[in-house]
Amino acid sequence: MALNPPMRDWHGQTVWLVGASSGIGRATASALHARGARVVVSARSAAALDAFVEAHPGALALPLDVCDPLALKAAAATLAARGTLDCVLYCAGHYQPMRAHALDLAELLRHNQVNYLGALYFLDAVLPHLLAQAVNARSGQRGHLSLVGSVAGYRGLPNSLAYGPSKAALIHLSETLYLDLRQRGIGVSLINPGFVDTPLTRQNHFKMPGLITPEQAAQEILKGWARGVFEMHFPKRFTRWMKVLQWLSYPVFFAITRRLQPE
Question: Which domains are assigned to the chain?
């Protein structure tokens, strides 16, 4: 069911991707560029962004740290001055496996800073500009906002003490944003990937079920935008099982997940 206006024609559309130096963000930026979008990429690594621009003529690099709200506001103002922002994507992320008997407060706070507070800084920077824009005749909306969560945010999972709660917060945030912004002409979508082969997931020391490439993830995201869905989750062969976990009672849920947890 379409909950957003479908976005299929990207030619000439401006898309800002924050967290695009590698992984899903970079692959999505590349896929959008191939479809004619005016792509703007942001991340901390200026070298990685410059390499992207060199490989994708016409793209624009705006290096920044998502933990710096002033840098995000300056970047958003720069882009708004250049014209309409048709779609913005927050895909910056931080991940380190963690269990409670090895709790690391600094790492917990780092996850919160990048995965959640960074998204709030991003919203604070970009939403005023989206709300002030005229409705795009092609898309029928003022702009579109997407946040990258994770199926790890569905329920508490082994090794996810730091990562899971930050992604659960993004899921809740996205749902509320949709309720508040849809009536104001801004589309909102939530992207919940399963296992994608990125520098972050390569820290896992177990076989990751349904593992896909960043390029495959990018194609799933573009398909989701084209269908106008609110939530994109992929690969379905894995994420459908993760959704089942959401409906299980605690005794059943804990019994299942306990078997997956290493001693």
Answer: 14-260 (3.40.50.720)
